[in-house]
């Protein structure tokens, strides 16, 4: 598996994680709350997961 593909899957996991959070709670999450949901502690995985998470938050409107 290439690194780019692996990181894209991590980004997708972040997106999916945000979609599983109830919208009312999603709007109230602060940096610490989001960091607690992120299963990755090191870059670049941590950053890519967050990119996916933030992308889902921006497009939230369920």
Describe the structure.
The chain has helices spanning 3-20, 23-26, 31-37, 45-58. The model has no long low-confidence stretch (mean pLDDT 94). Helix 1 (3-20) crosses helix 4. The relative contact order is 0.24. It contains 4 helices and no strands. The longest helix has 18 residues, at 3-20. The protein is globular.
Q: What's the structural blueprint in terms of helices and strands?
A:
Elements: H1 3-20, H2 23-26, H3 31-37, H4 45-58
Helix pairs in contact: 1-4
Largest sheet: none
β-sheet strand percentage: under 5%
Q: Calculate the terminal CA-CA distance, rounded to whole Å.
A: 33 Å
SSE sequence, one letter per element: HHHH
Low-confidence runs (pLDDT<50, min 5 residues)? none
> Which descriptor suits the 3D outline?
globular
Give the overall pLDDT as a whole number. Answer: 94
The helix-and-strand class reads mainly alpha
What proportion of the residues is helical, as a percent range? 55-70%
Number of strands: 0
Q: Please tell me how large the radius of gyration is.
A: 11 Å
Number of helical regions: 4
Keywords:
0% strand, 62 residues, 4 helices, mainly alpha
Summarize the structure.
The chain is built from four helices and no strands. The chain is mainly alpha-helical and 62 residues long.
């Amino acid at each position: 598996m290439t690194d780019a593909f692996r990181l894209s899957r991590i980004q997708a996991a972040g997106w999916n994680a945000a979609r599983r959070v109830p919208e009312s709670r999603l709007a109230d999450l602060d940096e610490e709350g989001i960091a607690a949901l992120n299963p990755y502690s090191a870059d670049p995985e941590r950053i890519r997961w967050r990119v996916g998470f933030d992308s889902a938050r921006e497009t939230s409107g369920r």
